[in-house]
Design a protein that fits this description.
The chain contains 17 helices and 3 strands. It has 435 residues and is mainly alpha-helical.
């Protein structure tokens, strides 16, 4: 970073020039005007009003990124702890009254919100980090769920025994799928993964041993670890959490399952973030940007692509095992292509390759249809309209990584081998990355 670059609470100084929040909002308005000018004359005002909030959101995101980059280590850890405490308090009835007036809020937090976030984190490893388009990701979710169902109902295994086994089996499934197919690229790979997802669903539907179209019922809940209850004291009483048993898994209270899913999400974020900052993550970035160049530079591309498939599959299997432990019964109809498409939409909507963005996208994709459930037949129409607007006016996602935003600036689509390469030194993309 330039030694002349500094940051303060209200300003950002770059090369001796101070940029205030007002300047950034003005820049957002200018970008919105430029985009509106490309629209038909009769629609320019409407386009400007639609684009302005998204450009402002992008400016706020950039400011937050700069602020976060300037925080010392202890400041970041404090923020992490506060975020986790906020997530623990989410099932509060006070929050539920607004967030989910039509559905049980703790159950909604567990699935689809928590489940979609965990699945999106796994798919982001494949799509966002390695640049491989996977349209059959629901298959790994199904394999994890059926592993839990079969081993629990037919062999009497417990949840905590099945959990690591389910992760290993789905990782092996990723290897089995990837080994013969990952030499394909782009659309061809997408078609193969789509077929794999349908093969798993049809196999489950036509196999009598696992219940066929009726699925498997009577799946036991995870065993109670302890009957400890959250004490009836502040601040727990204010948030309506007093008396909750977070480690006692039953059929009525969704909060213990939410906390189990939250633990899985936190551990997955730590694992994926460590990978992203490691040699493996740098290899995935090289493959995503230009696989041929990466291979010429000595990167074993096939091995790293296979690793991304296995890791993404393992995370999907983790979500499947946890989901089946709460759902009591599963059927093949739960694991259709629309689930894969929805998780992919969450990854792209939030900002492919950026963990906070992916989590935000998954939250919105899961929460918006439930929040507008009162509109009944029109809620899916509204949900689709929101997605169209976001993709039209914020194609890089709500919280994109700077590298992905640079790829979009070059017109590549930001999907690595599915688009084109990031420009070299001196190009607009390189300038964006190095800001």
């Amino acid at each position: 970073m330039n030694t002349n670059d500094t940051k303060t609470a209200g300003t950002k100084t770059v090369g001796g020039k101070t940029t205030t929040a007002q300047d950034m909002l003005g820049a957002a308005a200018a970008r919105a005007r430029r985009r509106a000018e490309r629209a038909p004359k009769a629609l320019r005002l409407v386009t400007y009003l639609l684009v302005l909030p998204f450009e402002t959101l992008g400016g706020v995101g950039e400011r937050f990124r700069d602020w976060w980059g300037g925080l010392p280590g202890y400041g970041r850890w404090t923020a992490y702890v506060l975020l986790i405490l906020g997530a623990i308090a989410l099932p509060s009835p006070r929050i539920a009254s607004f967030m989910s007036p039509y559905t049980d809020w703790p159950t909604l937090l567990f699935f689809p919100i928590g489940g979609y976030i965990l699945l999106a984190l796994g798919l982001n490893v494949v799509v966002g980090m390695a640049g491989l388009l996977d349209l059959g990701y629901v298959a790994f979710f199904a394999i994890g769920a059926y592993t839990m169902a079969v081993l629990a109902t037919k062999y009497g295994w417990g949840f905590w025994e099945i959990l690591p086994v389910g992760i290993v089996i789905t990782a092996l499934s990723g290897l089995i799928l990837g080994a013969p197919t990952l030499r394909l690229r782009g659309d061809y790979l997408a078609i193969v993964t789509l077929g794999f997802g349908e093969i798993i669903r049809q196999t489950a539907r036509n196999t009598d041993y696992i219940g066929g179209p009726n699925g498997i019922g009577g799946i036991p809940h995870p065993p109670t670890l302890t009957e400890w209850e959250i004490p009836d004291a502040e601040p727990f009483t204010s948030f309506g959490l007093a008396g909750v048993s977070p480690f006692q898994y039953g059929a009525l209270d969704g909060r213990p399952y939410y906390y189990l899913m939250l633990l899985a999400i936190v551990l997955t974020i730590i694992f994926v973030k460590r990978l992203e900052n490691s040699r493996v993550g740098r290899a995935w970035a090289a493959i995503r940007e230009d696989e041929d160049a990466a291979e010429l530079m000595g990167v074993p591309t096939f091995r790293y692509k296979l690793a991304s498939f296995a890791i993404g599959a393992a995370i999907g299997g983790l979500a499947g095992v946890i989901y089946a432990g709460q759902a009591v019964s599963i059927v093949p109809a739960l694991f259709t292509f629309i689930v894969s498409a929805t998780i992919l939409a969450a990854v792209v909507l939030g900002g492919s390759g950026n963990i906070p963005g992916v989590m935000l996208g998954a939250f919105l994709v899961a929460w918006i249809p439930e929040r507008v459930r009162g509109l009944q037949d029109y809620r899916i129409l509204m949900f689709g309209g929101v997605l169209v607007l976001l993709m039209a006016f914020r194609p890089e996602g709500l919280l994109p990584s700077r590298r992905r935003k640079a790829e979009l600036a070059e017109g590549t689509g930001g999907m690595g081998s599915l688009g084109a390469e990031v420009g070299g030194p001196g190009t607009q993309a390189a300038a964006e990355v190095n800001k």
